[in-house]
Amino acid sequence: MERALVSGLVASLVLGCGGAPRDEAPASDREGAAEPEAPAGVEASPAEASRVEVKVPGPSPESPPAPNADASPTLVAPEASPAAPPVAAEALAPALLEGPDAPSPWPASLETTVKVGASTLRVAAQTGLDGGKSRLWAQPLTDQDEPAGSAVELRTTNGELEALAAAFDGTTLWVGWLARLSEDGRGIQGLAGFDPALRPTIKTKGLRFFRYGGAATDEPLQLVARPGVGVGVTVVALAGSVRCEGMFFEEEGLTECVQLAIDLVGPDGSVELTETSELEGGDPSLTLTEGDEGLDVELLSWRGGALTDNVYVAYAGTVSRLSTCSFAPARLAWLDGGLLSICRDPELTEDEVTLACSPKQLAACGAFHFSRPPGATGSTTIPLGVETRFDRLTLGCKDGVPTLRVSWKGGSFDVPAEAVGLIGDDAVLEGGRCKGKALP
Is residue 241 part of a domain? Predict the structure, then answer.
């Protein structure tokens, strides 16, 4: 642990061209009110006070005085063998599982679950503490969602938490939140990292301040671990409301818009890339589709019809827009290096859209659209970049796997049914086995 910290310190000093870590949030959208500084908006937990402090030793008494002692020292990177790749944790630290299997002493105003190796962990927040604070805590669970060890306080933070998400990247448990700081709608987005013993390893970050508005959704915050072991997390948030130009102009050409914010966070907590986007309308929702080398985010809102915005963030650090359906896509899946959209019929009303494109209503979809990120290639002959009407959608079994077959006059292709959300209530599986028409 100390060796890793020393290596990280030297690397950051010698190779510091990447910039300082973003431990402070930009105080945007002040509206005349004084914004809190990020350290005050995201307080350190007591456990963070026990973090290991690495000090560079000074010269010994026998050493001759250094020339130009008042000048800044020149740091030279030591010759060292490459660091061993991180090893994924198989489970939570044993000490956590050996505690009493008692309910948490703290209530859960918000909660989520996340797999940490072979263990399931409940991550929860207690709001309404003195001073407008909230407590984050976690507890291992059994397969029956019963306590499997002691509850652990992760930290306290300023504000009333209104969204909570967690992800595990193989070595670090990432916990993110959105919190309301004041009655006038100011909020802050925070992120912290913990090891499998639930000790803080990544200094808490205030990613941004924002302003709450009328737009709301059930899942305004999602965390997705990046592929690999210990390589960081992608944070996707509907971070409040902003004023922006839209298709339906109001006074001075501005209207209320929802703000989408995507942060690509490295294993050390540094923000490698930030992308923001605005979309007018209300009742926003997010659809995240994991690709081979990036994450696609589809934002949907409603105003005089369905409005969409698509952002594809490559883990290499680039951003692009992938075209989807002319009307809001019903189902999205990653297929052969690209994004497949099953398109809703544009004649559907907003109420009908929620019912469309189930196995019994697949004909209500009408078309499909396929696009790839810049430079990506694939082997399929699916038409690229055009909305194509299909003749038939067939849900069946191929090699024992629930599969959706899309047929059009130019051919057909198969998509795993699970990839387009046709498992679960769709009764494709029975007793763990695929049932339905056998697809050759």
Answer: yes
State whether 285 and 243 are in the same domain: yes
- Contact indicator for 172, 191 with CB cutoff of 8 Å: no
Q: Whole-angstrom Cα distance, residue 194 to residue 242? A: 32
Model pTM? Answer: 0.77
The number of folded domains in the chain is 2
Instruction: For residues 44 and 175, state if they share a domain.
Output: yes
231 and 252 part of one domain: yes
Domain residue limits at 252: 224-317
Q: Are residues 208 and 243 in the same domain?
A: no
- pLDDT score at 420: 81
Q: How far is CA 164 from CA 89, 124, 353, 399, in A?
A: 23, 8, 28, 39
End of a domain among 170, 187, 212?
A: 212
Phi (first) and psi of residue 57, to 5 degrees: -65, 145
Residue among 423, 294, 231 at smallest CA distance from 434? 423
Other C-beta atoms lying within 10 Å of the C-beta of residue 39:
13
Between the alpha carbon of residue 119 and those of residues 137, 192, 436, the distances in Å are 16, 20, 34
How high is the pLDDT of residue 71?
36
**What 8-state DSSP symbol labels residue 61?**
T
Query: Do 329 and 346 form a contact (C-beta atoms < 8 A)?
Result: no
**Which bin fits 212, alpha (ψ -120 to 50), beta or left (φ > 0)?**
beta
The answer to whether the beta carbons of residues 201 and 275 sit under 8 Å apart is no
Would the pLDDT of 74 be above 70? no
Q: What is the pLDDT of residues 89-128, one digit of tens each?
A: 888 988 888 878 889 999 999 999 999 999 999 999 999 9
Asked whether residue 248 is domain-assigned, the answer is: yes
List, for residues 284-321, the tens digit of each pLDDT value.
889 999 998 999 999 988 877 778 899 999 999 999 99
Answer with the one of 192, 212, 232 that is the final residue of a domain. 212
Is the same domain home to 43 and 192? yes
CB neighbourhood size of 8 (10 A): 14
